[in-house]
Amino acid sequence: MENQNFKLVECPRDAMQGWPHLISTDKKVAYINQLLKVGFHTLDFGSFVSPKAIPQMADTAEVIRRIDLNDSKTKLLAIVANYRGAQEAVIFDAIHYLGFPFSVSETFQQRNTNASIEQSLERVAEINNLCIKNNKELVVYISMGFGNPYGDLYNEDIVYKWVNQLVAMGIQIISLADTVGVATAEQVYSITHSLIKALPTTEIGVHLHSTALNWKEKTDAALKAGCYRFDGALKGIGGCPMAKDELVGNMDTELMIPYFESLHILNNINKEALQISSTMATEIFI
């Protein structure tokens, strides 16, 4: 029987943003419209960020205007990095969630959002208020949530400290992001389980980056910890171009879907639509 709390989030935005060749607006629209037929809970489809920083996402406003949500229950999520981006995003009724990357690494937060962690905390408060006024929900991603490549101080207590502050501000959805794929299965279990246990009314998800070799052990660790919100991308493509030169891909949705189905926690996926999406992904990401 399907777990009603289970949420599978497909992230074409994460797959596209670091892709070296510019993907046309027409291709993005066609791909996203096809993904909307698959049965994902949420589609992380685009971002309202500086086009200089992420040129691939410069056409997000045009893309959202051409997305067809008829006959789809999938909700749309857009990433923002500051209040101005949030203002651009909230005008679109089709967008249900805004996502904000909040890093526990000072170096990465500066690189990714041009702000300190403390400044970003203020941004979260402002953006959350904007979301509430516009009937949106804010998802905060804990970037570098399992360690960082910069030598910045990291331990689980640092993660707990910032997550607790965010929850105290009213944030109800937190997604732990393994931005550069450094997490071990033990880490995934430890941090996720601790937060789920300590924050029973907060939705705790994972946005893990992984290779095809270790995706399953990380997935198992999160499930064992009680996590029912998972991000992924078809073909395992993606990674943050602001993090480091060598990107570690997303969790491959095409590996996760049959695994979740075998555990009877996911059963609403349209296989024909998924296959067409997979073929399109192969054509786009070549």
Overview features:
single chain; 286 residues; alpha/beta; TIM Barrel; eight-stranded parallel sheet; 8 strands; 41% helix; 17% strand; globular
Describe the overall structure.
- This protein has helices spanning 12-17, 25-35, 60-65, 83-90, 106-113, 117-133, 156-168, 185-198, 215-224, 253-262, 271-284, and strands at 7-10, 42-48, 75-80, 95-103, 137-143, 173-178, 203-208, 229-232.
- The chain has 286 residues and is an alpha/beta fold.
- The protein has a single domain (7-284), classed as Aldolase class I (TIM Barrel, Alpha-Beta Barrel).
- It has an 8-stranded parallel beta sheet.
- Strand 5 (137-143), helix 7 (156-168) and strand 6 form a beta-alpha-beta unit.
- Helix 2 (25-35) runs antiparallel to helix 11 (271-284), helix 4 packs parallel to helix 6 and helix 8 (185-198) runs parallel beside helix 9.
- 46% of the residues are buried.
What does the main sheet amount to? 8 strands, parallel
Number of helices: 11
Number of domains: 1
Strand fraction equals 15-25%
The CATH architecture is: Alpha-Beta Barrel
Task: For the record, give the distance between the C-alpha atoms at the N and C termini, rounded to a whole number.
Answer: 37 Å
Oligomer: single chain
Question: Uncertain segments of ≥5 residues (pLDDT<50)?
Answer: none
DSSP E strands, number: 8
- Spatially, the strands of the biggest sheet line up as 7-6-5-4-3-2-1-8
Order of helices and strands: EHHEHEHEHHEHEHEHEHH
How would you name the CATH homologous superfamily? Aldolase class I
Which class of secondary structure composition applies to the elements?
alpha/beta
* The top level CATH class name: Alpha Beta
Backbone shape:
globular
The name CATH uses for the topology is TIM Barrel
